[in-house]
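Supplementary material to the annual report.
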Amino acid sequence: AQSVTQPDIHITVSEGASLELRCNYSYGATPYLFWYVQSPGQGLQLLLKYFSGDTLVQGIKGFEAEFKRSQSSFNLRKPSVHWSDAAEYFCAVGARDSNYQLIWGAGTKLIIKP
Amino acid sequence: NAGVTQTPKFQVLKTGQSMTLQCAQDMNHNSMYWYRQDPGMGLRLIYYSASEGTTDKGEVPNGYNVSRLNKREFSLRLESAAPSQTSVYFCASSDQMNTEAFFGQGTRLTVV
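Predicted assembly:
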């Protein structure tokens, strides 16, 4: 069955420290991969996406993610977090088929320590 | 540049009441979606419309109906609200299925 796992429900990081949020997927087809961010009380905003090509993808707000096919992972990274990065982060997977729906992870809430 | 607009932002319903959530997008997107978001469960797809004139069930369609009124508008109707439908509802749109989706600000619905 298709699934997306974000193993960490919460992550606490000190301001200025590096960040890695994990995303693992189980998907039969070649995936499209997305990371979205949701600030409190807001809708979701796309951070970055991978469709094909270079497996290291740059996004907005200084985020990047790396697609590792052998590990079925698409982890999100940032070298130095800011207090404004406190939010919930969602990984999603789709496929190159118009009948497939996006499969969403349950989200990881990022808490920033001052 | 409005993007995806949802109305209302907040709503309280009594059990058994009906209501329609409205969604409109101004990006000329083909595909539109309705999701619900519950704590610890991420986003769950209720219904989607791959293109104007089509609608399909998602993961959790029971208790809901939708209408793709035109290319811009996609409404979600609760015919007889239940407390289990207390949630935050998001409308989204994309140029094609499974490409980048743009989200509205959400509707926080409470059914008492």
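Chain A has a mean pLDDT of 91.
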